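Methods, example record. To illustrate the input and output format used throughout this study, we show the complete record for Tellurite resistance methyltransferase TehB-like domain-containing protein. The sequence lines were provided to the predictor; the line carrying structure tokens was produced by it.
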Amino acid sequence: MWQPNVKKSAYIRCGEIFVTGIELNEEFVKLQKDIIRDFNLQNIEVVCADVRNREDLVKQADLIIMNNVFSFFLDSEQQADCFEFIRKHTKKSCLLIHNPDIETASAHLNLTFTINDWLDRISTESDCEMFADGNMDILSDCKTLGFYRVR
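The corresponding predicted structure is encoded as:
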């Protein structure tokens, strides 16, 4: 049986990937741009913007990664508005990774939709266990992530 060379295939395909980060804080954008420049990173850019003003980027995304966003600098109403915006503009089958899982991050918000109506959760249990390789701290961190596909 033929088995693809996963490492080689991932390496070959990585040149096809373009990553765009959206960051609201100008200081973090400058820091990220300095790192991109200093390490001569290719196929990556960071834009300083409120995600709600970048419908174009959200609509074209195949993968969105959100790490502890909104809760530290937006009130509950603005957080709900951001989730409403992202739900409205993500394309079907877009993958979404959220830390912590979206159910936890949005539990206190008054949303006009349910997470289950918008997203299908993808189980990562076995992947987390494999990645953690017995390290309970890593396993605990991995289990806080939510991995989803837009319906």
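Annotations derived from this record:
Confidence is low (pLDDT under 50) at residues 1-12.
The chain has two domains: 1-49, 52-151.
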